[in-house]
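Let us work through a complete example step by step.
Step 1: write down the sequence.
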Amino acid sequence: MNMDTHRKDLYPDVTASGGLVLAMRKAAKLGEGEIWPAPSTTDGIIVKTARGLVSVVPATEERLFRVRVHIPGFIWGIPGFTWEIGSTDDLGLLVEMVTAWREGVLFDELTARFRFLELDEFAGAIERGEPTSSQWADLLSTEFHRRQWNLLRCLHADEVLRDMFPTISHGAVRLRVDLFDSASRQVLVHELDGERYDVVPRAGVAGAAVWVEVPAGDLIAYLRAALNED
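Step 2: predict the structure and record it as tokens.
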């Protein structure tokens, strides 16, 4: 029996819908920009949510949808933080869970409603701020980002800014208030000469990508104010 035949026996509901992407898109009312095939898998999918990228990969040896959450580091998937959060053989239950996850249902309610979820490690890491602190440590030790080390150290030294999730974007440092939400308040900082910095105070907001030159002495206060704006 070849793999395709075996997979059809395991997932006839998915096959009838034209594949997992189409099945999930129809059932969970996902748009094209919210869901796409997962790389390096035959039938896996990725769903974009405000709380990370949710990936679903059907097992080949048994009917089982394996679910993971990935929080990107620099750019989609390179590198980041990934947690296995459970698995189920029930497509309907899977769709309900992904929908609830996208809607921001609290972790306690999610685990109560969906018994297959295992969020202890994931929730604990989030509560301890480990993704953010690990991201800072990675950026400050990666040789590829040596040119940004002085700026990163300056930002990390501030007790407020070090709680923001950092990434590197085209040589500039991006600080984001909510690591789960790529649309949350964020700033983009580019070092000019150690005494002057170019800053986008509302990075990520459509039509707001205006660079402002800020002297070194005003940088921290300027960034704090920008990140605290309503």
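Step 3: interpret the result. The first strand starts at residue 35 and ends at 37.
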